[in-house]
Amino acid sequence: ESEFKIKVLEEKNREIAQFNYVASHDLQEPLRTVICFSELLQKNYKGKLGADANMYLSFIVDSSIRMRKLISGLLEYSKVGAGKELVLVDCNKIVRDIILDFDAILFEVKGEINSDPLPTIYGFELELRQLLQNLISNGLKFSTKKQHPIVSITVANTDKEYTFCVGDNGMGIDKKYHDRIFGIFQRLHTKETYEGTGIGLATCQKIVEMHGGKIWVKSALGEGSKFYFAIPKKIKQ
Ligand code: ADP
User: Fold this and answer.
1) Average pLDDT over residues 185-204
2) What is the pLDDT of residue 111?
């Protein structure tokens, strides 16, 4: 009977993932039209509309562009875990690539990314990369703005699992929000102060769970944050 229940649940999960994918994919199309025609209005009616109309138009364009980011985040989220293959992944290489990708940002914010020697593990390569990238990018983004951001990656090795930690010297997170931030679209800041969609950590959680692991945070306001995730050495597929 429990086997039957699992089958039903798996089927439901597939349906939800499929729904997410289709919905976010199909939402892009009408949005593209809205953005395109608003931009045409802005361009072709330059100087002919009043100040109010110009302002309304720029609100429409800004919001549509933001919605495009939200939808593409949702699409990314829904793609995690579909028909992937377990391979041996060298986490050092992932971090090296991320540091190269973040070169310009690191230069701009005078930031630093340090890492322990990391293990080679069985996992889903693109997803592990996305996971580390989201955590590192948050560590750089949510800095105190008074100190240069430093992100440090460490790892603890036990019999059953590797526990990674991505720590930063940033603004920190009040304990009462520690669960909430892993929810989809959940953010603690307005889009004006820190840019983002609130999908990053939800995606991280989904990725860690597809590896059979757990993700959590230790942090207090003003004391930096440490994001931990544990990946079992034997992953059941
Ligand atoms: P986004 O980065 O797009 O806002 P996330 O899902 O990655 O969305 O993060 C959700 C929220 O959690 C962020 O908006 C921020 O308030 C908080 N947060 C995440 N990482 C950190 C961090 N390293 N330091 C402080 N706050 C963080």
Assistant:
1) 88
2) 96
> CB of 150 closer than 6 A to ligand 1?
no
What φ, ψ does residue 24 adopt, rounded to 5°?
Answer: -70, -35
Least confident of 60-74, 202-216, 221-235: 60-74
Quickly state the pLDDT bin for 82 (edges 50, 70, 90): low
Nearest CA to ligand 1 atom 11: 187
What is the rounded distance in angstroms from the CA atom of residue 92 to the CA atom of residue 105? 20
At 61, which amino acid appears? V
> How far is 25 from 213, CA to CA, in rounded Å?
29
**Do residues 91 and 119 make contact, with C-beta atoms less than 8 angstroms apart?**
yes
Would you say 64 and 38 are in contact if contact means Cβ atoms under 8 Å apart? yes
Report residue 16 as tokens.
């939800």
- Give the DSSP H or E segment for 34: helix 2-44
Strands 150-157 and 112-115, sheet pairing: parallel
> How remote is the CA of residue 138 from the centroid of ligand 1, in Å?
6
Closest residue to atom 7 of ligand 1, CA basis: 200
Written as six digits, the tokens of 141 are 């983004």
